[in-house]
């Protein structure tokens, strides 16, 4: 009952200073803080502590003292597009968000004035999860998950995680290709989707984790597929992968 009361209160109570449609939200691991991304290009962190229902939360870099419900704790405007996805790290110390400007943003609660921002060359990203405290996986309109790593004082592009094996037909001889064209009446040189997902990835979720490190995650796409990705298998098959 308390769980239900709390979430109804939060959805109805946090209005200021949001002046645009909310596209995403994520709960802090301590369940007293919530992050929100919206169409005004901003990512915000609010207090969701309800004094009358629960014990006092522990103080942190996000909330240095107990703040009443709905208090704006932080606001970030580094994006130049709608904020589609937001996610706290396993410890809750860091926050990542992805925007329609194809950027990935990460901030640490202890140095909120410095936002790590990586402007990618990919199509807009829509969702993000953390594999650990330094690695973020994002997905979106490129149809495949991408890994980004915090390296020193920057957020670096890692590697594409969806690596398909070369199809047997790729090395087809001219004679075999002509025969196939004669049999089917069509050529196969048109646009071919080589990714596991045939459309944009709409959501990433952690499915298995151990001591703050993700072992497996899933991706849901607008093609109707749900794909499970094993981090150990990815690490053994992709030489450039750094986690």
Q: Could you describe the 3D structure shown?
A:
With 243 residues, the chain is mainly beta. It has three helices and 15 strands. The protein has helices spanning 2-13, 174-184, 231-237; strands spanning 22-27, 33-38, 43-47, 72-76, 83-88, 94-99, 103-108, 115-119, 125-130, 135-140, 146-151, 154-160, 201-210, 213-221, 226-230. The chain has a four-stranded antiparallel beta sheet, with no helix packed on it. The protein has a four-stranded antiparallel beta sheet with strand order 5-6-7-8, with no helix packed on it. A four-stranded antiparallel beta sheet has the order 9-10-11-12, with no helix packed on it. Strand 9 and strand 10 form a beta hairpin. The longest helix has 12 residues, at 2-13. The relative contact order is 0.11.
- How much helicity do the residues have? 10-25%
What is the number of beta strands? 15
SSE order, one letter for each helix or strand = HEEEEEEEEEEEEHEEEH
From the N-terminal CA to the C-terminal CA, the straight-line distance is 40 Å
Number of helices in the DSSP assignment: 3
Shape: elongated
Q: Which parts are unreliable, with pLDDT below 50 for 5 consecutive residues or more?
A: 1-9, 166-170
Q: Average pLDDT value?
A: 84
In spatial order, strands of the major sheet run: 1-2-3-4
Alpha carbon gyration radius? 21 Å
């Amino acid at each position: 009952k308390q769980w239900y009361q709390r979430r109804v209160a939060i959805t109805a109570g946090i209005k200021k200073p949001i002046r645009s449609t909310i596209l995403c939200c994520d709960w802090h691991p301590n369940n007293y803080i919530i992050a929100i991304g919206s169409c005004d290009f901003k990512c915000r962190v609010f207090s969701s502590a309800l004094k009358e229902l629960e014990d006092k939360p522990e103080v942190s870099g996000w909330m240095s003292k107990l703040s009443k419900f709905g208090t704006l704790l932080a606001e970030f405007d580094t994006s130049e597009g709608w904020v589609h996805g937001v996610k706290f790290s396993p410890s809750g110390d860091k926050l990542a968000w992805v925007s329609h400007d194809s950027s990935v943003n990460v901030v640490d609660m202890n140095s909120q004035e410095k936002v790590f921002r990586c402007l990618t060359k990919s199509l807009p990203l829509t969702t993000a999860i953390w594999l650990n405290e330094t690695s973020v996986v994002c997905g979106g309109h490129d149809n495949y998950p991408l890994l980004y790593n915090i390296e020193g004082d920057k957020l670096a592009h890692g590697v594409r995680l969806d690596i398909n094996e070369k199809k047997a037909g790729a090395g087809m001889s001219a004679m075999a290709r002509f025969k196939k064209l004669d049999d089917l009446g069509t050529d196969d040189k048109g646009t071919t989707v080589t990714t596991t997902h045939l459309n944009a990835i709409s959501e990433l979720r952690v499915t298995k984790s151990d001591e703050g490190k993700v072992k497996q995650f899933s991706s849901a796409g607008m093609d109707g597929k749900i794909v499970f990705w094993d981090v150990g298998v990815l690490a053994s098959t992709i030489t450039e992968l750094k986690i």
